[in-house]
Amino acid sequence: MFRSGYGDMLHDKDRNVKYMEGLRNVLQRYKSLDKPVHVLDIGTGTGLLAMLAARLGADRVTACESFKPAFDVAKEIIRLNGFDDVITVIDKRSTDMTEGYHL
Predict the structure, then answer these.
(1) What is the pLDDT of residues 73-83, one digit of tens each?
(2) The sheet that has 87-90: what strands, in order across it?
(3) Contact 61, 41 (CB under 8 A)
(4) Angle at 65 between CA 46 and CA 79, to 5 degrees
(5) On the chain, which terminus has fewer CB atoms closer than 10 Å, C or N?
(6) Phi and psi at residue 101, in whole multiples of 5°?
(7) Helix (H, G, I), strand (E, B), or coil: what is residue 84?
(8) What SUPFAM superfamilies would the database entry show (predicted)?
(9) What are the boundaries of each domain within the chain?
(10) Predicted confidence (pLDDT) per residue in 5-56, tens digit
(11) What is the largest CA-CA distance in the chain?
């Protein structure tokens, strides 16, 4: 499908736990303000961080991925994990997204 060095990141438990703890802390802080929380995942890859944000309580997650094979994989993984009602995956570079339209 595509060559990358991202496999190591996916299997790096310590790194992923740190991301989860950081997301949890920030999401709890924002959720305590009683406002909707929208997370932007730039370069989502497989969608792991987007799914963590959704699982930890983000009201909405926008994940962008400009590499088409990774975009297709992320959409499918997110759908199979039941997060497609919270996560929108966009096949664009973050710099090509428009506030009010994509975000």
Answers:
(1) 999 999 999 99
(2) 38-42, 60-64, 87-90
(3) yes
(4) 50
(5) N
(6) -110, -60
(7) coil
(8) S-adenosyl-L-methionine-dependent methyltransferases
(9) 7-96
(10) 555 555 678 988 999 999 999 999 999 999 899 999 999 999 999 999 999 9
(11) 42
Rounded Cα distance between 56 and 24, Å, is: 6
What's the whole-model pTM score?
0.83
Residue 36: CA count within 13 A, CB half-sphere:
5
DSSP E strand boundaries for the chain? 38-42, 60-64, 87-90
pLDDT at 9: 54
The two tokens of residue 50 are 């987007």
DSSP 8: H
Question: Residues for the chain: how many in total?
Answer: 103
Give the per-residue pLDDT at 22: 95
CATH architecture of 7-96: 3-Layer(aba) Sandwich (3.40)
Q: pLDDT at residue 89 above 60?
A: yes
